[in-house]
Every structure is written in structure tokens, then in C-alpha cells.
Design goal:
The protein is of the alpha/beta class and 282 residues long. It has one domain. The chain is 38% helix and 14% strand. The chain is built from eight helices and seven strands; from the N terminus they run H-H-E-E-H-E-H-E-H-E-H-E-H-E-H. The chain has a seven-stranded mixed sheet, with helices on both faces. Strand 3, helix 4 and strand 4 form a beta-alpha-beta unit. The C terminus is likely disordered.
């Protein structure tokens, strides 16, 4: 019975990916004709929502998206993306290299992922883009831990990413994410995508263990005015997420050492840039 259910889920995932690819081909053709549709964000949200259904994810949401804010969240798994993407028309920031990944880069770009180029003095350009996109009613999200963790705590937030919010004069809305076992409500150990795991192996484990519960809490926004340093903003956002999850700030969760799908590589700024720890977003 379990084998048949897993096989059915795999077939549904393949069909869902095929549907997404067909939609992206259609969008690409329209875009070449100068007729890029305005329903892409809504279609992406529906695609994420359907993927969560196929995977058997139960999503519990507290709070709501606040317009005009940059979303900041802890990062546990690639599952974070469809779980969050199903909650609104949310775009994610990614490193430019992802655009060149076979199929994935093309799908991500068409779905509205924003790619950040390497280079000096990019922060003003990136901040202007953020401000423009959010002013147009879009919601954008970053994961400032730099990688995924096992969810037993929250890794340090890289302050450099918070310079974006300050530069663009955006509010910051922390988002707390947790995965629980349906049976007893304890922290789930299947969902984290860490270590030397592969996407396919992890996906198969998720399929074999249905009933994952994803808890998403949209917390009250934090102002990012001139009086707050980016380090202070990073600490406040991390503290808000830790408090929402009931976690010890000193906890040291296991982390992934693989490159995350989306680092934003800022140029060094001597007054505060650490030598290690390139920030990543998805």
C-alpha cells in the first residue's frame, strides 16, 4: 500500500512538473512576441499550492503578509519555497548563476525570480529594484542564514542583506518556519535539507513520509529606518523568529555546507564585512 501510494505521488509530481514546463514554454513564446502575460505571479502561486497538495504538506499559517515589506525567514528546506509561495505572490532573490542552471534557471526566471549579478557597488541598484518591485505591489523574500539548517535553531543572519532594506527604506517582516510530525507535533527530521543530501534522495524520503506539517508565522513588521544599523536589524529579525519558535538563541543547529541556490555576493565594505560567510537567498 505504501509503495503504491509513493508511486502515485511520483507520477503526480512528474505530471505537475510537465504542466509547469508547458506553461513556461507558453509564457516564453508570448514574451518573445512582446505580450508577457500579467497572470504569471498568480499562476506561480497556484503551482506552488498544487505541489504542496501533491507532496501531502499540511500548512498552518499564523499572521498575514504585510504590504510593502521585505520578507526575512529562517531556512530549513527547499520545501520552504513552495510552502511560502503558496501563501501569496511572493518572489525570491537568487544569485545570478542560477539563471544558467539547466531547466531550473529557466523555470525560476520565468516564474519571477530576481537574479543578482556580481560586481562592485551593486547595493544601490539592487535596493532600487527592491523598492520598485515592492512599490508595484510585489512581495520579495530572502533567507539571510546563508544556507539551510536542521531546524533545531536559527543560524546567524548575515547583516549585509539588511542593507538592502535600509537603502530602499523598506519595512522588514520576519517569517518563522517550522516542520512538525503529524503524529506528535515534535520537530520533524525528514524535512531539513542538509549535509550532502541530494534533491532526488530527499524528495523520495518526503514522499515516503507523508503528513508533514509546515508552520508558517508572519510576524509583525520591523522598521528599517536610518537609526538602526544593519547588524541591529539582523539581530532583531532573528530574535523575533527565535521567540516565535520558542528556541534558545544559543542553539547551534546542524547546517548544510552545500551552496544554497541563491547567494547575493555584495562587494566588501571594510567597516563591517566579515571574511567568511557569503549570504545566500533562495
Amino acid at each position: 500500500m505504501a509503495y503504491a501510494r509513493s508511486l502515485l505521488t511520483i507520477l503526480l509530481i512528474v505530471a505537475h512538473l510537465a504542466t509547469g514546463t508547458a506553461i513556461v514554454v507558453y509564457i516564453a513564446l508570448l514574451s518573445r512576441l512582446g505580450r508577457r502575460p500579467d497572470w504569471i505571479s498568480a499562476a506561480t502561486r497556484r503551482w506552488h499550492r498544487r505541489l504542496c497538495v501533491v507532496l501531502g504538506l499540511r500548512i498552518e499559517v499564523e499572521g498575514r503578509l504585510d504590504p510593502g515589506c521585505l520578507l526575512i525567514g529562517n531556512h530549513i528546506s527547499w520545501l520552504d519555497i513552495p510552502a511560502l509561495g503558496a501563501q501569496g505572490e511572493i518572489g525570491f532573490l537568487s544569485k545570478a548563476e542560477v539563471r544558467d542552471w539547466p531547466l531550473i534557471g529557466w523555470l525560476a526566471e520565468t516564474a519571477g525570480t530576481h537574479f543578482i549579478e556580481r560586481g562592485a557597488n551593486r547595493i544601490h541598484e539592487i535596493s532600487a529594484m527592491l523598492h520598485r518591485r515592492i512599490a508595484e505591489g510585489h512581495t520579495l523574500m530572502i533567507f539571510p542564514e546563508g544556507t539551510t539548517s536542521d531546524g533545531a535553531g536559527v543560524l546567524r543572519f548575515h547583516p549585509r542583506l539588511f542593507a538592502l532594506a535600509r537603502e530602499a527604506r523598506l519595512g522588514i517582516q520576519p517569517v518563522a518556519i517550522a516542520y512538525r510530525r503529524a503524529a506528535d507535533g515534535q520537530r520533524d527530521t525528514i524535512a531539513p535539507f542538509i549535509g550532502d543530501d541530494t534533491l532526488l534522495a530527499h524528495l523520495l524520503r518526503v514522499i515516503r513520509h507523508p503528513g508533514l506539517t509546515v508552520e508558517i508565522r508572519f510576524l509583525p513588521p520591523l522598521p528599517s529606518g536610518e537609526d538602526a544599523s544593519r547588524r541591529a536589524l539582523a539581530e532583531r529579525a532573528r530574535s523575533a523568529i527565535l521567540d516565535a519558535l520558542g528556541m534558545d538563541p544559543q542553539a547551534r543547529p546542524a547546517r548544510s555546507e552545500r551552496p544554497s541556490p541563491g547567494p547575493i555576493p555584495f562587494p566588501a565594505q571594510p567597516e563591517s564585512m566579515p571574511a567568511a560567510g557569503v549570504p545566500h537567498v533562495a
